[in-house]
Design a protein that fits this description.
alpha+beta, 35% helix, 8 helices
């Protein structure tokens, strides 16, 4: 923020300005990898802010009956849209678009927004059913790829890195990731911090030890539920041990940030 000399505005800063200030720093490179954490769409939506109010007139012309907090959410989304349009335009102008992959995902639903509001303005899925409040999009965009495919099996943010590593044939060890390659044979499981989990067969609610199959005609398979629940519990335990023991620092065979002394040595 300090180095790029952002124009300070009330509330979260502009993703369009973020792109305008950063893309020129790498666009002339032969190869580049860039990670963005966008900010424009962050809450609150129930109070005034620069980006939340920026496009209200345009939104009123199309959706005058929408609730104000939803209009502010859309206004913030429009700023992100303009940021992505700028990125794509500059990539194309520099002959880089065809050879660039953009991995794009949302890490949570609109926070501080009533579930009823989210459900009212969501058309493709019923947000009030199961854990659908937490469903978010994950897109891999590469213009040179052959065809377009929409996939809807369960997967989580844990699965993104292994999936991308496999798609682009990167050098990685899948045993070092809790997530799984989306296109692999292993059953897809999404687990939550409270112990809930989702598979292709149904949802398990940890607080009440209940598994609800997606197919209402199927009876819960106790052996199946038990095996998945043990796997999820094991993932939590392994994660905790990795953190508490600083496991990766003790693996000299793995790439790991080295201290200055080690580098000099």
């Amino acid at each position: 923020y300090d180095d790029l000399n952002f124009h300070t505005i009330k509330g979260w800063q502009s993703d369009l300005e973020l792109m305008e200030l950063t893309v020129p720093l790498y666009i002339s490179e032969d190869k580049f990898f860039t990670l963005y954490v966008t900010s424009s769409m962050h809450f609150p939506y129930d109070e005034s802010s620069t980006l939340g109010d920026r496009y209200l007139n345009e939104i009123d012309a199309v959706h005058p009956d929408y609730k104000l907090n939803i209009k502010r959410y859309i206004s913030k989304a429009m700023e992100l849209d303009k940021a992505m349009a700028y990125l794509l335009k500059v990539l194309e102008e520099n002959g880089k678009l065809e050879d660039t992959a953009i991995v794009f995902f949302a890490d949570h639903h609109p926070l501080n927004t009533p579930l009823n509001d989210i459900a009212m303005y969501t058309y493709e899925v019923d947000r009030t059913v199961g854990l659908n409040e937490d469903r978010t999009p994950f897109v891999i965009y590469c213009p040179s790829a052959l065809g377009t495919k929409k996939l809807d099996e369960v997967n989580s943010t844990f699965d993104i890195l292994p999936t991308v590593c496999n798609l682009y044939n990167l050098d990685y060890d899948p045993r070092l990731y809790l997530g799984t390659d989306y296109f692999g044979k292993k059953e897809k499981i999404v687990y939550f911090t409270n112990g809930d989990w989702i598979s292709q067969k149904g949802i398990y609610y940890n607080s009440r030890s209940q598994f609800v199959p997606f197919d209402e005609n199927l009876e819960p398979d106790e052996e199946y539920v038990g095996s998945i629940d043990r796997e999820v519990t094991n993932c939590f335990n392994v994660s905790s041990l990795i953190f508490r023991t600083d496991y990766f620092a003790k693996r000299p065979d793995l790439p790991y940030p080295k201290s200055k002394k080690e580098i000099e040595k």
